Amino acid sequence: MNLQELIRAAIKEDMPQGDVTTESLALRPRQGRARLKAKEDIVLSGTMAFEQSMQALEPNARVKWHFEEGDEILKNQIICTIEGDLVQVLKAERVALNFLGHLSGIATFTRRFVKQVEGTKTKILDTRKTTPAFRDLEKKAVVHGGGVNHRMNLSTAILIKDNHISVMGGITKAVERVREHSQLSVEVEASTLEQVKEAVSLKVNRILLDNMNNDILKQAVALIPATIETEASGNMNLERVRSVAEIGVNFISVGALTHSAPCADVSLVFHWEE
């Protein structure tokens, strides 16, 4: 589903038989200006979804952005100005704000994680724990926040996880079978030091160290040569990521970036003209 399809579905969901409140007021077109205001410090993402949501109902709406995606915006700053028929803008308001608030929330939350690991070699990764049909938008928001995208979907990269290992009867059998059928780089999940040693012996490209405490993580990283990338995952939060980054892993993957980011607090202020 592309952005236009998402917007059409969102508008249909919000007003399946029109906006009965606004339409019952029998308002004629009312030209004016609305300003999008940040009600807290945020990192901006979702500008195209916001603008196209407006233009879906008011094709003549003119949106002037005062910031770019990825910019940090302070509380009470004006993010953009919209000019056009405010009756139609009013109908599109909630859908547009839902997109921008959700995506800016992800970017803002990601930026907090990225700042926690500043000064280390560690990069913050997202996961596939995204809202169905919103993955492209949400992963772009992660990038706007300074994070890095992990695989976009199951078709783009190989990651041998615990269930793959279980069904194949071990890491070695799983890696050997994958290499028979694919030339892509191989990442393997390991939850014990024995599994780490086995993955190292197979010269995989990256080892995902899953749900290990910091003491076990240190031992695991010491076993892995620099030629193999390391990724830590599981129970990662703002309080912990710094200590994990200082162990020396290349990546920390954080599902919360997309599944638990708070919505950014923004609002639309209308200035009606007679």
> Could you say which overall geometry the principal axes of the C-alpha atoms support?
elongated
Counted by DSSP, the helix tally is 11
Largest sheet: 6 strands, parallel
CATH class of the largest domain: Alpha Beta
Question: Between the first and last Cα atoms, what is the distance in angstroms?
Answer: 40 Å
Strand segment tally: 12
CATH architecture of the largest domain: Alpha-Beta Barrel
Percent range of helical residues: 40-55%
How does the SSE layout of this entry go?
Elements: H1 3-14, H2 20-24, E1 31-38, E2 42-43, H3 47-57, E3 62-65, E4 72-73, E5 78-85, H4 86-116, E6 123-125, H5 135-144, E7 158-160, H6 162-168, H7 171-181, E8 186-190, H8 193-201, E9 206-210, H9 214-223, E10 229-233, H10 241-245, E11 251-253, H11 256-259, E12 266-272
Parallel strand pairs: 6-11, 7-8, 8-9, 9-10, 10-11
Antiparallel strand pairs: 1-5, 1-12, 2-4, 3-5
Helix pairs in contact: 1-3, 3-4, 4-5, 8-9
Task: List key phrases describing it.
TIM Barrel, 4-stranded antiparallel β-sheet, 42% helix, 274 residues, single chain, Aldehyde Oxidoreductase, domain 3, elongated, 11 helices
Polypeptide structure, described:
The strands form three sheets. The chain has a six-stranded parallel sheet. It has a four-stranded antiparallel sheet with strand order 3-5-1-12, covered by helices on one side. Strands 2-4 form a two-stranded antiparallel sheet. It has two domains: about 5-115 and about 260-270, Aldehyde Oxidoreductase, domain 3 (Alpha-Beta Complex); about 120-260, Aldolase class I (TIM Barrel), CATH 3.20.20. It is elongated, with a radius of gyration of 23 Å. Helix 1 (about 5-15) packs across helix 3, helix 4 packs across helix 5 (about 135-145) and helix 8 runs parallel beside helix 9. With about 270 residues, it is of the alpha/beta class. The model has no long low-confidence stretch (mean pLDDT about 95). It is about 40% helix and about 20% strand. The chain contains eleven helices and twelve strands. It holds the Pfam family QRPTase_C. This is Probable nicotinate-nucleotide pyrophosphorylase [carboxylating]. Its EC number is 2.4.2.19. Belongs to the NadC/ModD family. One of its GO terms (molecular function) is nicotinate-nucleotide diphosphorylase (carboxylating) activity.
